[in-house]
Amino acid sequence: MRRAVQVATVVMVVMGCLAFDAGLIAQRLAHTESEVPATNPFSGDEKAIKEGRSWFMAVCAPCHGPRANGAAERGPSGADLRVFKRGFEQFVHIVKNGREVGRIGKMPGWGKVLSDELIFQIGAFLETLAIEGAYWGESQTKP
Amino acid sequence: MNRMLTKLTGVGVALALCLMGTTSWVNAQNDLAVTDSMLLSDPAASWLHTNGNLAGHRYSVLTQLNASNADQLNVAWIFSPGGETDAQNTPLYHDGLVYFTQDNTVFAIDARSGRRIWKYEHELPETFGGYNVDFITGKHRGVAILGNHIYFLSNDTKLHAIHYKTGELKFVKQYLHYPEAFDKAEDGDSNGYATTVGPMAIPGGQIIVPLNATDFGGLPGWVYGVNPEDGEVLWECNMIPGPGEPGYESWPGDSAEFGGAGPWITGSWDPDLKMYYTGTANAYPWNPKTRGGGEMDNLGAASVVACSTDTGKAAWRYVAVPGDPWDFDVPQTPMIINIDGRKTVVHPNKTGFIHYLDAATGEFLRAPAFVDRLNWIQGYDVEGRPVGQIDLPVEGGDAVEVWPSLFGGVNMYPNAYNPLTGNLYLAATNAGMDYKFEEIKVIANVRHFGASVEFIWGYEVELAIDVKTGAEVWRDQKGKWGYAGGMLTTAGNLVFYTSQAGVFHATNATTGEILYTFNLGVTPKAGPITYMLDGKQYVVQPVGGVPGWDFQEHHLEHGSMVVAFSR
Q1: Cβ of A96 under 8 Å from any chain B Cβ?
Q2: What homologous superfamily does CATH list for B32-566?
């Protein structure tokens, strides 16, 4: 009897995990095309954050700095992303399409070479660096 | 009547032809073509090479301005090129005109008044862009002059021959494919060559064209010698050894294909040996795991390369940072100096050392250190090999603290040598870095650095170094981070430079006493020049950009000026 309860518990846990993962996967798959979710489906996901950090170091850090604070090896530098406050959808839009940033530089668009998923992962990493003033929730203005 | 008309017409035609002939004769007479003998001279009335002379000294024989009167300097004129990027171009001066480039535009400026005489604009292709390419777009480090033409290398590897007086284009020729923005590269390959370096004119009718792709994806570096009449390639010199050359085996697998080693600063040339000397960029990617893990030399990268300008063959290569794992590219201009009867390549660079090499053979002679703090190696052995290099970082692991940082030592800001004082003048900095290896990502066939860096901010320091002993003679140490824009020295016992804080200096070349300062209020990224016109000596300093690498304590905004000083 005791063994049967143990087995049942394990099965329930496994099924629960599968159901959770399936929901998460479905949620993520739903956003692999052009539709951008209102908030980052990878927020807090450690694996995604690790992958996002790796891509951030490759494609973003040369301008935004390895701490994302704008202190970069390739100055004049990008923005201080620790205080990014335009919300998640705007973040994705800017990364995909680029942005003119004044006299001496521009943010290139990465939409044709980085998947939505990778951009979301980079966003998930940046959320972990957020300091006072940052906002990664729903964007107040549509991209 | 008809006969009269015919006669008059004939006279008129003859007169017109005569006038046309006279006009063209007058123009031809007024053009002061730059000759081989002018190219061979040290700068006096004119400044015809980015680095002043062919040996890379940035030394002028002018003495009207000297240590006894430099305190009487004043601003003579100011020209604003309206630049949007860093003004990295050391100007030229010839026949009443100062030449300056920024943002793929060449300006000819009246050297008496600072007024613009002509402007030549080049528009980059729409697809131009790519990894790190925005960082260098619009930046140029010099032009060349030969005969009646200015030679300008735009960012997309195009050489433009422009009449020095009129700005009229003679030809434009592209050498290699330029990098394309990731989202615009039609074949999915964004790699390409992007040029910021100044071309160089040498006697015998050649323009030297350095071609670099290192930090844009790592295509290997080249130096071309081209015909000044039409831009046709006369020879090609590969920085990375090819099959059959010594050092070819120091690149495992196909790593040389994206190994970097681009020449990105104007080099020097010796008229006897007929060799062009250039420092080269880092090995690529920065993370060395695909090119021997730092255990193989990767000869040609982080090296000094001597190219025969007769054949294009590399006469010798010396690697200053074998297997370069630190982004210690050494592109700084190798200066050719006769020391105790030996023609010597003297090469201060990012490593924190000054390398002395035999100019004919590349034999390593010595390498004294000039930075205040250094830990990446203990020094060089008698063969010129680094000794006691610190452990490399582990990919994905902790950072390693490295001194100096990948900024050097000295970086792209030019140094000078004064044969009268026997001193080198270095635009140096002291800073370290926390350096990590990361995974090497590949996008659009472009390999990324595979490394990240955070700087340990130090301080700017202008150094006078005895070229024979390597010992420090004097220093002008500033309190904040950065470099001077570059150094100029003269037979008037002076050194001119502008600090990162935007303050122009005239300093006693022997003692280091600061004789004159003027706050330009804009950060410098280029060295000054000097020339003589109407019996008056001028010093011209370009400034433009913002203090480097987001170091905001200078409290300077972006600016763009070319400023002339005189008494």
Answers
A1: no
A2: Quinoprotein alcohol dehydrogenase-like superfamily (2.140.10.10)
